[in-house]
Structure formats: C-alpha cells, structure tokens
Amino acid sequence: MENERRMAVLIDSENVSPKYVKYIFDEISNYGIATYKRAYGDWASRTGSGWKDIMLKNAITPVQQYGYTQGKNSTDSAMIIDAMDILYSGKVDGFCIVSSDSDFTRLASRLRESGMLVIGMGEKKTVEAFRTSCSLFKYLEVLAEEEDQNPEISREEVEETIFKIIADNDANDKETTVGELGNKLSNRHADFDVRNYGYSKLSKFLDSMKALRLEQHGNNILVTLAESEVPKEDVEKIAIDIVSKAKDHKMGLPELKQKLERRIPNFNIRNYKYSKFSQFIKDMEGMRVKNNTVERKDKG
User: Fold this and answer.
1) Do the beta carbons of residue 274 and residue 280 sit within 8 Å?
2) Is the pTM for the entire model greater than 0.85?
C-alpha cells in the first residue's frame, strides 16, 4: 500500500525462542510492512537451536555476533548500532525490538525521541522500564495464545482510564472515537492489549461495558456514556429509603451500593457520569457521607 508504515524488525535471538517468530510477524503486519528483518546471535555456537529453518522460512537475515568477552552481551551492542544506522538512513517509520532484555530501554527511548513508532515484544519477565520506554509493548505469550494471561493492568484500571478520557473530551465539547481511545490507552499503558482481557478487538471490549454506547458515524465509531433508564432523582429516593430503614438511619457505602444494585437493574454510577460511588452519594441533597458511612442529613 502506498502509505503503509515501513518497519525494521530486530530480534535478539539470545532472549527469544524461534517458536514466537510467526506471531511476531503476524502482529507487526497490523502496523506496517517489515522492510528490515534481522536476528542477532552467535550462530556458530547455536547449531540445532531451531533458528536456521525459521530464518529461511521467514526471510530473516542472520547477523553473526561473536561473544568476544565472557559475560558481555555483544549481541545487544550489534542491535543498537544497527538500529541507529537504520534510523539515520531515513528508510523506516518505526521499529520492532524483540527482546526481554532491559538493555534496550535507552535505545527505545532514543528512537521515540526521533519520532519513530517503537513496538517492543518480549516475554512476561520483561522489566517495566523497557516496556514503558516503547510506544507499544506486546507479550509474546499473549501473541502465541499459549495460556490464559493475567494482565499487568486490571480491567478496572483500564475502565477508569476510558471514562476519564471520555469525561475530558465531554468537558471540551469533543467527541470520542474508538481509534482515539486505542491511541490514548496505549500512550498511558504501553503494554495494554485487549487480548489480555479475552477480546480480539477494542470495539468489542468497549461494547462489553454496559456504561458505554457505541455508534457508527461515517468511518468512525463514536463512544459515549450510556444514559441510565432510571433518573438520578429516583435513585436518590431509593437510596434515602434504603438508609432510612437501616439502624440509626445510616450504613456503610459498600452496603448501600450493593442494595442499590439489587433494587435497580444494571445500576452503574458511570451512567450518571461519576467515577466514584462516594461522590455520587455526596452530591445527593438528602445524604451525608463521613468515614465511608452514609446517613440522612435530617437524621435526628
């Protein structure tokens, strides 16, 4: 394609198993075309490692790097030097650095400083410093779908970020699209991947959130907060009724939240543009919140 992004894929074979190669290139095809495909290692000492056939099949150029000094990783140095040479050639728009080694942290940061898209790929053991230095980071285990993942970022934290992005846009009279959410989530959480949560697409992940509504507008999918079927005034009446029946006309916030969820189908404070239940209750004229306990203002 005429404007397809050109990517340089550099693989640290000392830290990556050849079984992941297919998944690496399948994933990179979502971002552009791999114009450079290189794997670095001391191939003279690694016969039978499985890399030879994989490199031939995928047209990967092997870069021989002898281990001149014991305890020193000359492969890292070779990758860093080549990356900078490719950067200065001006022939690529982005890099994919495949390694679980933290030694590439500064390289990723430097490439981003030059305006490059930097996609990191590594195993779950990859240190946070390298992950966050990349524009995006992909776990190889997730790409290979070898086992169920426990995301580094909880779903609740991701949802909080989504609601904040939408709220910020609403405050500035700006619409929110699925594409924008994807970009901003990646900027704030470099290793965010919807596959960690069991979804193949971000739109499907967003559609699973009852507090959101997705609508197709031309080429974009707009994301807005869903309107609740129960007006806020009615919720307040129900909340006051619940608290009035409690001992001393007061109860803990968690208990009140549970009782509201039982009384109101699909109750979610997001529908009322709140991110915290405590603030939702504090804004009710007839309620008072103190030390995680809610009571009627006219109590006593």
Assistant:
1) yes
2) no
